[in-house]
Structures are given as structure tokens and as C-alpha cells.
Amino acid sequence: MDRPRPSAVERSLRSAAPHEIFDVLRSLIEDRHHAREVDLLLVDYAMTRLQPVGVLPHTRPPVPVHDSAPGRAFGAQEPHCVHDRSASTVTVHLPVSVRGDRLGVLSVTLPGEGGDEPAADVLEDLRECADALAHEVVVAERDTDLFLQARRAERLTLAAEMQWQLLPGRSCARPEYSLGAQLEPAYAIFGDSFDWSASADDLYVTVSNGMGEGIDAALLTNLAVNALRNARRAGLDLCDQAYLADQAVYGQHRGSQYLSTLLFRFHLPTGNVEIIDAGSPRVWRVRQGVVEPIELEAQMPLGMFEDTAYVPQHFRVEPGDRLLFISDGVYDALSPGGEKYSLRALAASINSTRLLPAPQVPRVMLQELLGHRGSGPAADDSLVMCLDWYGRTGRDRQSLP
């Protein structure tokens, strides 16, 4: 079978210099559809603002993710049209996403007489432009800082810079699952981190809570995450992944620093889950509307002792299940009056976000936590990860080799 050939848009973007790909796309859309304005807005690290891409400082003001037309397209992951009858235009806001990872919004203002929606073929072409741009932005970030700079509503600390560069993304999706995670304070995170990787039949997920602050915490987390990746990419099982990461951290710090970590392997065809709780963040499950913690046998954190042997536990996820992985920075958050964030408040937050898609849940839960903690400096960073499990259909199972 012949491979599908790249479209003219894809070819143009691939041949452009990394920092020029949006300029090239803007020119193409202006020529094809007589667009009056074309803007690219990328979501900031806190996922509260959509930041215009341009040469700093000559950019337009950001717009909020909440209560804005571009934010509506970003949240729903569907095009959203806004008519301006006085100007005889229609602005189409389109999500810019790659494999479930939400990057931002492409906004295109077109002539729109009489309030008509854009023709179906025009809308489809703009969708393809947004999808092509999303893939090229991810690739271009290896060679230009333009898009990374555009995402910053304020300056990152050096530790936060190291942590964000370590992450795989903030959301991803496949037919079997949808996954999203967020860290706060986004511009000054310490040692919390997450990672994931999927193959044909397995999804690996890790959630880590490193001790310490600033650069020390970031260096510790970088060592542990890369040790886990090294072991996973060598084809080792979950126990050996934990063992080798444990030895890497212990060998460097001799027990003076260590890392609490959850390690998961989800078997996509069956929903069987293998898990190692290395003194980790906690896990909650929402099943048929019931919110409950999953009790696990806590083992030693990575790097606390030499030659720790890890033993996996097992459970099963069912279609419709939601899992939430939550770090100590959430449970231990104090109000200005010194009151801890209660388990009751956490359960209420989990319940109130049950209708949101997984990529939106972590940000909303952390915003509710901020309402409890107040606007002062955080004593610890906080991590929330949400996984919605859909499972593999009977047809999918039959097609397995």
C-alpha cells in the first residue's frame, strides 16, 4: 500500500526554519482563505492563559483560558466560531493538539457576510492546518526557543526549567485511555514529577515526589526519572526498573536524599495493572460515581537504602474508571490560618470534576487547592494526575496478534 503523501501545508512547514513555521502557515492561510488575521496562542505553564506567539516583547495581550472564545475551543477541543456582524467577519478558534497533548489555539478571522458559518471544506482545511502546525511546533522546540518563550506568563525558576524539560507533556490520549497531569506552583516547582510511555500493549506511568527544594530537588528528580527511563528502555520489568533507579539514587546520595514514587504498568488489552508503591503519592479511584482511595502496601522510597527489593501488587481497572494520583503537596497544603486541606475537601474536589475530561481535571483541582491555600508562597509543590480508562473493545482484542 502506498503511504499517504504529506499535504502542501505539511511540506511547506517542514521546509521552513523552526522559528518561521507559524509565519509560513499564516501566509498560507491568508492566501488560501483571504484571512484578515491569523494568531497562534499557546497555553502557559499554569494552564490559565493563552499566550500569543510573536517576537517578544511585541506580542498581543494573553487571553484567559476561562471565559474567552479561544479558551472555549481549547477546553472542548473543538472549533468554535465567533461572528462580528459589525465587521462582517467570523473568527474560527481551533485547538492545536498532538496525540491528546493540548498546546494551544489557532485563531483565524475570515470574511463572514450575514453571520454564516464557514463552509465545511474551509473548516476542514483549517483543522488540517492546526493539526499540521501542532506537530511541527513539537519538533521545532528542539531547535528554537520561540514557542517555549511564548508559553511563559512569568519567568521560570531554574529548578522549574529543569523539571518542565523533563516531562513528556501534560496530556495524552489513546482509544484505551486519556491522561492529564499538572504541577503547581507552575513557575517555581521543586521535586514533583511524572512520566509516561506507551507501547502496543502496555502503558507505563510514574508519579514522583522528590525531597528537598530548588536545584537539589530538581537534580534528584532528574536522576531518578532518567534512571527509570533507562531501565524501561532496556526492556526490564517493573521490579527491576524500581531496583535500578533505587540503586542510582542511593549510589549518588547514600540515603541522604530519596524519592517517593509510584510505578505502574497498565496492560491495555485486559486492564490488569502492576504497581509498585515506593513510599509514594496516593491513588484514588472513581468507579460508578463512588470516590475511594486505593490502599497499597508502601515500600521504601527510591534511594533510601541499599539493595532494596521491590515487590509488585496487582489490581484491575474497568472501563469507566477514573484514577487520580495526588502528591503530598496537596494533602499537606495549609490555609493562611494553618488548617490542612482535608480528605473531605479532596474527595469533594474529585467529585466536582467528575464530568470534566481527564486533561482538564488536574488544573481545576489545583485551582481549588489554591483557593484553600491562598496566594502566598507554597511550602511544597503539588501534583495531580488523572487517568480515564476506556479499555480495549472486543474487536480490538480480536485483532491482537
Q: How does this model look, in words?
A:
This is PPM-type phosphatase domain-containing protein. InterPro entries: Bact_Sigma-Reg, PPM-type-like_dom_sf, PPM-type_phosphatase-like_dom. It comes from Streptomyces griseus subsp. griseus (strain JCM 4626 / CBS 651.72 / NBRC 13350 / KCC S-0626 / ISP 5235). The chain is an alpha+beta fold and 401 residues long. It folds into two domains: 6-148, GAF domain (Beta-Lactamase); 155-387, Phosphatase 2c, domain 1 (4-Layer Sandwich), CATH 3.60.40. 33% of the residues lie in helices and 27% in strands. It is built from twelve helices and 17 strands. The protein has helices at 8-15, 21-33, 69-76, 120-140, 146-150, 158-166, 214-233, 238-253, 328-331, 343-352, 361-373, 394-398; strands at 37-43, 49-52, 63-64, 80-84, 89-98, 101-111, 171-174, 177-184, 192-198, 202-210, 259-267, 272-278, 282-287, 290-293, 313-316, 322-326, 382-389. A six-stranded antiparallel beta sheet has the order 3-2-1-6-5-4. The chain has a six-stranded antiparallel beta sheet with strand order 7-8-17-16-13-14. The protein has a five-stranded antiparallel beta sheet with strand order 9-10-11-12-15. Helix 1 packs antiparallel against helix 2 (21-33). The longest helix has 21 residues, at 120-140. The chain is globular, with a radius of gyration of 22 Å. The protein starts with 7 loop residues before the first helix and ends with a helix.
